[in-house]
Amino acid sequence: MKKSLAAALLGFGAALFLAAGAAPLPAKAATPDDVLVMAKNIDDIINLDPAESFEISAGEMMGNSYDRLVRFDPADPSNIYGDIAESWTVSDDGKTFTFKIRPGQSFHSGNPVTAEDAAFSLQRVVILDKSPAFILTQFGWNADNVADLVKAVDAHRAWLETSGELRTRRRARARGRVRDVVDRELRRVAWSSPETSARLDAGLDEIEAGAATPYSVARGILGALLR
């Protein structure tokens, strides 16, 4: 009885297998000649919020999905042209930028694009303080002052003002580089001098004899170099 049941089950399974194998495969539609199919690895995308996302794939998509105040020509990055902004002016001290919003623009919802929208978008990046925020915070904007430094003048104009922090940071970096160069050059000049080497050897003898310390020897060498 058990052998008969096993044989029947095997036979039934084989019949199902043959039936499935004999079934025709589903038809696949061919790609039309005027359609381009592209495949891309986009697993680096976290989201498509321009105030938060800073990944390469997301940046490419957002660059083709969102409008900006201005854009630049990829072939010539020095060529800056308006996108949402129709025009803009810069104050004499280079700290205040006033943008005039191009009229007649609207969101997909149909709501008009205003200067308040542009100001809110920039403020939101700074306040959220996600990955892209450093692009704006380097100008001295932070959550406490961005509402004062990024404002809508009226429905068609927005102005952006820097706090001077960028200049301060640039001067600090330049100061550090100058000091590094001076330190390096002083070391080169000092230790390439036979007189300095002779003073160092004499100073080492005095240190061994207990008549001097490394600090006093160093002061003597510096005094001789600066005379």
Task: Describe what you observe in this structure.
The chain is an alpha+beta fold and 227 residues long. It has two domains: 56-161, Dipeptide-binding Protein, Domain 1 (Dipeptide-binding Protein, domain 1); 168-226, no CATH class. Helix content is 47%, strand content 15%. The protein has eight helices and six strands; from the N terminus they run H-H-E-E-E-E-H-H-H-E-E-H-H-H. It has helices spanning 2-22, 56-63, 115-128, 134-137, 146-149, 165-191, 194-208, 214-226, and strands at residues 70-73, 76-82, 85-90, 96-101, 150-154, 157-161. The strands form two sheets. The protein has a four-stranded antiparallel β-sheet. The chain has a two-stranded antiparallel ribbon with strand order 1-2. The longest helix is centred in the last third of the chain and has 27 residues, at 165-191.
Overview features:
two-stranded antiparallel sheet; 227 residues; elongated; 4-stranded antiparallel sheet; alpha+beta
Secondary structure class reads alpha+beta
Beta-strand residue percentage: 5-15%
Output the CATH homologous superfamily of the largest domain: Dipeptide-binding Protein, Domain 1
Major beta sheet, strand line-up: 3-4-6-5
Q: Helix tally? A: 8
Number of domains: 2
End-to-end Cα distance, whole Å, is 115 Å
Name given to the CATH architecture of the largest domain: Alpha-Beta Complex
Q: Rough shape?
A: elongated
CATH fold description of the largest domain: Dipeptide-binding Protein, domain 1
Level-1 CATH class name of the largest domain: Alpha Beta
Order of helices and strands: HHEEEEHHHEEHHH
Largest sheet: 4 strands, antiparallel
Low-confidence stretches: 5-10, 12-19
Which value, in Å, is the CA radius of gyration? 36 Å
How many strands appear in the DSSP assignment? 6
Average per-residue pLDDT, rounded, comes to 83
| Helix amount | 40-55%
